[in-house]
Amino acid sequence: MTFQVYDTTLRDGAQREGLSYSVVDKLAVARLLDELGVGFIEGGWPGAVPKDTEFFRRARTELDLKHAVLVAFGATRRAGVAVQDDPQVRGLLDAETPAIALVAKADIRHVERALRTTGAENLAMIRDTVAYLVAQGRRVFVDGEHFFDGWRHDPAYTASVVQAALDAGAERFVLCDTNGGMLPSQVTVAIADLTARTGVAPELLGIHCQNDTACAVANTIAAVEAGVRHVQGTANGYGERPGNADIFAVVANLQLKLGMPVLPEGCLEQMVRVSHAIAEIANIAPDTHQAYVGAAAFAHKAGLHASAIKVDPLLYNHVDPSVVGNDMRILVTEMAGRASVELKSRELGLDLAGHPEALSKVTSRVKELEAGGWSFEAADASFELLVRSELPDAAPARPFALESYRVLVEHREDGAVVSEATVKIRVRGERVIATAEGNGPINALDEALRVGLSRHYPELRAFELADYKVRILEGSHGTGAVTRVLVETADGTGRDWTTVGVHPNVVEASWHALVDALTYGLDRARV
Fold first, then answer.
1. What residues pair up with 177 in beta bridges, in sequence order?
2. How far apart are the C-alpha atoms of 76 and 128, rounded to whole Å?
3. Residue-wise pLDDT tens digits, 180-194
């Protein structure tokens, strides 16, 4: 039986707090998921949510899916209403999707208290709706809401719900850990008990897990190991409360750890790109420590790790990062040894292996600076400048020499706050004095420096301060604390770089980061 990867980012994932997709967003996410190679994309609840109704209408002409089948989500008929007369069921058919997912109560307590009907009527609602939709030519999946809670309370009734759906023609019955309270061993026991009670083949079952115990991915894998052949999840684990099973971790584990080719050939390597693109559409910063797709998923900090990686990268990587579209990174910190510095330099295109004295100097300098609060983990540009300063014929040319700078902040009678900066520098033998205003002291200082340099370095006009972060260092207190500044700069061509500065005075810390940013950018512009 074919393995099914079913994505519900656009429905269950959209329930994440603070997340709201437009119709255009939903169409874009659907295209990305199709590029990942998932088998099914659940698009939303037509008829119940106007935005979803519009999505399915536009999808008919605007989506050209290569791998996925579009699925409309809804509920079984209402209690006491004929299925053909239920407008919600009619809305599912009007979506014109090849497949439909129905949510059904699998816990007798929810049947009696939430639906306020009987167990027998609930079973009839499931049978009637599934049979009706199958007769209309639709593939039908049934999501057994609160399956695991229902199994623990009244396993016989919950088993009857599964049997009713499959007997009526459902393609899969999906076991839903709606409250997210299960552990992997409990999932395994529940599936074994269900199949023993009903005789249902586990291949006809699916799994849908919330992440309230931080076990959603593990519970999903446990279900597959118990024989389930349909998995549900969301991109980046988006969803209500702590979220859902992360579809990226699920498929990567299945394919790379269990040897199950659940995605079309060549699709797994799209994971990082798709993950980050969906995060961008959702306006949520990517989780740098997310398994497989995070920027830190294959980042190594300890010198011991780097020494081994220098011999064989797989000694400290559980898989080759490239198979999921990621890359290995070496972090340079106070924990760095010579191997870390050498590997990181090689990553930046610099060869320290042939310069042992320079390697020793850089390693010692990194440790010294990091002890004082500097951090090169996120500041590759500053680290590269440090390395190059120790290499023969590679030291970057400093674009100017500082004579002095001054920053003023004026609070005026009308409440306006104005920052002004003046820099006195020497550029190519010329003494330059430049003054500029800004919306803050750092912005004013940056603008003044650019004004002073722009006549000699017109390429500076393309540089843009993209991000500015300030952090009070641990062990420092109050307004006299040591601060670390990270500056991200972009040049308008898609290239960006990050530099760092540290000092008890936040303006001086910012100055160090700004000077490195301009030095690095100008040097790169000449390459």
1. 209
2. 8
3. 999 999 999 999 999
